Amino acid sequence: MTEPRPMTKEALLSAYAGESMAHMRYLIYAEVAEREGFPNVARLFRAIAFAEQIHARNHLRRLKDVMADEKITAGAPIGIGNTSQNLELAIMGEEFEINEMYPIYIEIAKKQGDKAAEISFYYALSAEKIHAELFKEAKKYVDQGKDWPLNGYIWICPICGHTYVGKEPPPKCPICGALGKDYVKF
Ligand code: FE2
Ligand code: FE2
Ligand code: FE2
Fold first, then answer.
1. What are 42-82's pLDDT values in tens digits?
2. pLDDT tens, position by position, 92-119
3. Of 29, 55, 117, 173, which residue is the least packed, with the fewest Cβ within 10 Å?
4. 54 CA to middle of ligand 3, Å?
C-alpha cells in the first residue's frame, strides 16, 4: 500500500482524530452514567467507545506509511453534562458523521481510487447509523429517569465496529461479513 493522496489523507487524518475523541468522550460519559445510576447506558457507551476505537484503528492502518508528525483538525462535540445531555451530544456527533462527514469522505476516497480508505469510511458510516439509533433509544428512557432496558448484551464486530444488541451475536456481520463468534461482548 502506498501513501494516500493529499485529500484522502486529510480525510483519513480528520476521521482518525474524530473517532479517537469519540472513543474518549464515550468512556467519560460511561463514568457519568454509572454514577447517575444508569448501568446499561454506561455499558452502551463503553461498547460504542470500543466500536469507535476500531474505526480509529482502521483509519490509522490506512495511514501506516505516513511517517510524519501531523497537525490534525477534527470537529467534535465538546462538554460533559448529565447523561441525558451526554446522549444528546453523542447523537449530535454521530449524526454529523452520518450526514456530513463520511458521505463526503467516501466520495473523496472513491474519486481518488483509494479502495482501502473508502472501505474504512464505509465501515464507520454503517456503524454510526446504528449508534445514533441506540443513543436515541437510550435517551428516551433516561429522560423518564429510567435506565435503558438491555435484554442480553451489546456485541461489537472487531473488524468494522458493527454494533448489535441481543442474547447472541448475529451469525455474520451484515457490514463486513466477519463471523459472529469473533464479536466482542459488552
Ligand atoms: Fe465511529
Ligand atoms: Fe459511532
Ligand atoms: Fe463487521
1. 999 999 999 999 999 999 999 999 988 989 989 888 889 99
2. 999 999 999 999 999 999 999 999 999 9
3. 173
4. 10
Task: Report the greatest alpha carbon distance in the chain.
Answer: 52
Cα 37 to averaged position of ligand 3 atoms, centre (Å): 31
List b or e across 139-167, with b for residues whose CB sees 16 or more CB atoms inside 10 angstroms. bebbeeeebbebeebbbbbbbbbbbbbee
For 104, the domain range is 6-149
Ligand with an atom nearest the CA of residue 48? 2
**Residue 177 predicted with pLDDT over 90:** yes
Q: Give the position of cell 441506540.
A: 134
Is 164 a member of any domain?
A: no
User: CB-based contacts of 104: which residues, under 8 Å, 6+ apart?
Assistant: 11
Q: What distance in angstroms lies between residue 52's CA and the mean position of ligand 1's atoms?
A: 4
- Examine residue 108 and state whether it is found in any structural domain, yes or no: yes
CB 101 within 8 A of CB 77: no
CATH code, 100:
1.20.1260.10
Note whether residue 162 is domain-resident: no
159 assigned to some structural domain: no
Q: Count up the domains in the chain and report the number.
A: 1
